[in-house]
Amino acid sequence: MTSTDVQSLLQFLTGPAKLPLRDAISKAKPLLADGLSSPDLIAKAPLDKLQQIFANEKAAKQVHSAAKRVTKSVASKKRSASTQDDASSSNNATENTPSISPPKRRKKNQTPSIDASDPQSWEAGLDLPAPVRDENLISITTITTNRAPLLLVFTIISLTYTHPWLPASSRFSLAQGLLDLTASSKAKSIGITRKDEHKNDIIEEGYKKIRVLSKEIPILRRWDTPSTSTSSFQTETNLQKQGQSHMLDKPPSDDVKATGINPGPSTSAAGDLSSSPDAPMSRARGRSSGSSTSSLYPNRPIYWSLSPSLLSQPPTASKLNPSALPIHLPHAAHSYLIRSFSQDKLPLLLGALHLLYESWVDTLDPADLDRKSWNWYCNVRPVVEDGPEGWGGKGPVNLKNILSLRKKAG
């Protein structure tokens, strides 16, 4: 397996197969290991072989179909080039034209549609299984994973303790933003993607950012808290009418004029991680009481993670994003996380992470807790090969190593 093989396969997976970069990277190595290094070989492979690599049956069929289309297209071009320009060759060319299959019926999408008039609809379908805190069981458990979903779950749990006022939709959106930022940066540094493919990865100056696991994530201020009737959709629509599309946070004073809502304390790149002396106690009390975030933190701002690629494109509405906000959608991150871990291992992973953060939350302020989070992730993430060959590679993660990072008693 060479770097050229990896790059060629990634170009197919992110191009004709239309897989997200992170999914393409995670599946390139197992495909190459099974000898499926080209669209032609993937097209000839039985579908059940692909389903063993792609846990998602839909993704396996998507890649298989794309490989067949590419293979047929190449074969068709070869046939056309070899035919004579006469009636006989014209008939042959007609016969050799690939038939268009009838569109397949889509499976029913289980993800709830977002109701623009109900901000709470963003939170539907984002539940995670209850964490299992049995230390004995956690200590003997090993999971096999690649780095991306582990970083995603680390970020979700970290935000639960550093930004406890954020609803689940914000946490998943910010986690997806971090995942895409690190994946794009790594792909660029090792030459998996070309330089010109990153021209839409840069957010122009003026947008606010917050630190998530020590990385700066561009954000879009939200106003659709459960305790208010003003939704981000209404705000975005009003700003679009005023010619200020995608400018909710450029600058804060414009937000106040456009919406008439008091934004609360101003924040900088690290401002959300600053806290009063009793903040750790408040965060611990909030988690144990089960109170709503809106009542415990009435003046804390909430955010979406901005998507650089969507900012560079015309707004497109969908069931999950009817106002066409240029954001990382939380349900995509949730679906990826759930698919990445088995039903019996995910609760144990969540339990280990909660035990880790609970041991430190009353000792460290949110900024320090956030900084440690990146180091903790690096300490336990699976070891993979350097360079393109290691991207998407899986490795063991011993959950006892997460427990070992807890604050020592005394």
UniProtKB/TrEMBL annotation:
<feature type="compositionally biased region" description="Polar residues">
    <location>
        <begin position="81"/>
        <end position="99"/>
    </location>
</feature>
<feature type="region of interest" description="Disordered">
    <location>
        <begin position="66"/>
        <end position="128"/>
    </location>
</feature>
<protein>
    <submittedName>
        <fullName>Uncharacterized protein</fullName>
    </submittedName>
</protein>
<feature type="compositionally biased region" description="Polar residues">
    <location>
        <begin position="110"/>
        <end position="120"/>
    </location>
</feature>
<feature type="compositionally biased region" description="Basic and acidic residues">
    <location>
        <begin position="247"/>
        <end position="257"/>
    </location>
</feature>
<feature type="compositionally biased region" description="Basic residues">
    <location>
        <begin position="66"/>
        <end position="80"/>
    </location>
</feature>
<feature type="compositionally biased region" description="Polar residues">
    <location>
        <begin position="264"/>
        <end position="277"/>
    </location>
</feature>
<feature type="compositionally biased region" description="Polar residues">
    <location>
        <begin position="225"/>
        <end position="245"/>
    </location>
</feature>
<feature type="region of interest" description="Disordered">
    <location>
        <begin position="225"/>
        <end position="295"/>
    </location>
</feature>
